[in-house]
């Protein structure tokens, strides 16, 4: 059950919670709800074709109730267009075969469904100015991507906040972070990007640290309207 090889039933979850004397009913109910969800996720169609970590990212986003990300070089993956995403994957070392690169582009675009529909998740993206100025895919692709980014940020469930270079140093400058909020705090998970794939952590001390990073961003980044105006100004320069 712990490795995900065997499914666990809601009844078994409640029995184990009783054996472990877990008295947090909200936590138990949230885990039971996850166990009751037996439908195969859309990401399962990619199993065997893409690395397990990419499937885990999609599943994590699907079960989250709220998402916060911090980007320093790439724009938020959940808001990518195909040309921009293709250019990002083209920078991989060693180079990806063309077919695998296209699979990753399709997977990345499919992840965006968590921001759509009646059950759209709340999303907050903190983006450094450096990421907005990077031209992945050239000027035309970057212009189209930035315009799309501003349009997406007008949606009620999406908030985009820009951190300008004038803000100076900031925590977590060297990596991208996604904080996925679970139905209860015990199910919160942080996903970090690395050269060898996504990494996940849910230890309380680490969650607290990354939450502090994102709260710092909230205090120092431009507000939503100013962020859009700043990005539109860069679009006009391209």
Question: Could you say which overall geometry the principal axes of the C-alpha atoms support?
Answer: globular
The CATH architecture name of the largest domain reads: 2-Layer Sandwich
Number of helices: 9
Total strand segments: 6
Task: Provide the spatial order of strands within the biggest beta sheet.
Answer: 3-2-1-4-5-6
Oligomerization state = single chain
Q: Helix amount, in percent?
A: 40-55%
Task: Name a few traits of the molecule.
alpha/beta, Endonuclease, Chain A
Write structural notes for this entry.
With 238 residues, this protein is an alpha/beta fold. The protein folds into 2 domains: 1-38, no CATH class; 44-237, 2-Layer Sandwich (Endonuclease, Chain A), CATH 3.30.870. The chain contains 9 helices and 6 strands. Strands 3-2-1-4-5-6 form a 6-stranded mixed sheet, with helices on both faces. α1 (10-19) packs antiparallel against α2 (25-36), α4 (82-90) packs across α5 (98-110) and α7 packs antiparallel against α9. It starts with 9 loop residues before the first helix and ends with a helix.
Question: Quick recap of the structure?
Answer:
By secondary structure, this protein is an alpha/beta fold. The protein is 45% helix and 13% strand. It has helices at 10-19, 25-36, 52-63, 82-90, 98-110, 129-133, 138-152, 204-220, 224-237; strands at 66-71, 122-128, 158-163, 177-181, 189-192, 199-201.
SSE arrangement:
Layout: H1 10-19, H2 25-36, H3 52-63, E1 66-71, H4 82-90, H5 98-110, E2 122-128, H6 129-133, H7 138-152, E3 158-163, E4 177-181, E5 189-192, E6 199-201, H8 204-220, H9 224-237
Helix pairs in contact: 1-2, 4-5, 7-9
């Amino acid at each position: 059950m712990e490795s995900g090889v065997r499914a666990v039933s809601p009844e078994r979850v409640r029995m184990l919670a009783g054996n472990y004397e877990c008295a947090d009913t909200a936590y138990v109910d949230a885990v039971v709800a996850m166990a009751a969800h037996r439908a195969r996720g859309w990401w399962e169609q990619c199993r065997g074709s893409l690395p397990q970590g990419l499937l885990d990212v999609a599943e994590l986003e699907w079960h989250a109730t709220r998402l916060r990300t911090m980007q320093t070089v790439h724009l938020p993956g959940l808001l990518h267009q195909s040309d921009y995403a293709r250019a990002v994957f083209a920078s991989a070392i060693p180079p990806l075969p063309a077919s695998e690169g296209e699979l990753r582009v399709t997977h990345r675009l499919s992840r965006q469904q968590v921001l759509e529909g009646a059950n759209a998740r709340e999303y907050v993206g903190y983006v450094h100015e450096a990421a907005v100025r990077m031209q992945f895919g050239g000027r035309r692709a970057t212009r189209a991507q930035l315009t799309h980014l501003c349009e997406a940020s007008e949606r009620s469930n999406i908030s985009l906040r820009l951190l300008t270079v004038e803000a100076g140093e900031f925590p977590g400058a060297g990596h991208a972070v996604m904080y996925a909020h679970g139905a209860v705090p015990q199910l919160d998970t942080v996903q970090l990007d690395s050269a060898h794939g996504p990494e996940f952590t849910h230890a309380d001390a680490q969650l607290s640290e990354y939450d502090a990073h994102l709260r710092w961003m909230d205090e120092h980044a431009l507000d939503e309207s100013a962020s859009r105006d700043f990005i539109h100004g860069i679009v006009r320069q391209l």
